[in-house]
């Protein structure tokens, strides 16, 4: 678990994938929302599609819910 407000991890993960440092054919980014607080609490990087999670297309989805 990392602190999203201190670093944007999405470009890092994409860079690792593009450099073939993740041994996957495809990369999917998702987030999981806390049922208790109804806000994102987990970034999920996967080699396969996970339809149970919403796709993470904009990192602001995670950071907009972090208090300053």
Q: Describe it for me?
A:
With 68 residues, the chain is α+β, with helices and mostly antiparallel strands. It has one domain. Helix content is 21%, strand content 19%. The protein contains 2 helices and 2 strands. It has a two-stranded antiparallel sheet. Strand 1 and strand 2 form a beta hairpin. The two termini are 19 Å apart. The mean pLDDT is 88.
Question: Which key features would you list for this structure?
Answer:
single chain, about 70 residues, alpha+beta, two-stranded antiparallel ribbon, 2 strands, about 20% strand, flat
Give me the number of helical elements: 2
Fraction of residues in helix: 10-25%
User: What structural class do the secondary elements suggest?
Assistant: alpha+beta
Distance between the termini: 19 Å
Q: What's the rounded overall pLDDT mean?
A: 88
**Largest sheet: number of strands, sense, barrel closure:** 2 strands, antiparallel
Oligomeric state of the chains present here: single chain
Shape: flat
Q: SSE order in H/E notation?
A: HEEH
Give me the Rg, rounded: 12 Å
Q: Which runs of at least 5 residues are low in confidence (pLDDT < 50)?
A: none
Strand arrangement in the largest pleated sheet: 1-2
Strand content: 15-25%
State the domain count. Answer: 1
Number of strands: 2
């Amino acid at each position: 678990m990392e602190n999203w407000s201190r670093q944007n991890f999405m470009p890092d993960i994409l860079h690792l994938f593009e450099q073939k440092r993740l041994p996957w054919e495809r990369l999917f980014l998702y987030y999981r929302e806390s049922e208790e607080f109804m806000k994102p609490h987990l970034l999920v990087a996967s080699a396969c599609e996970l339809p149970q999670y919403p796709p993470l297309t904009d990192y602001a989805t995670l950071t907009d819910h972090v208090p300053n």
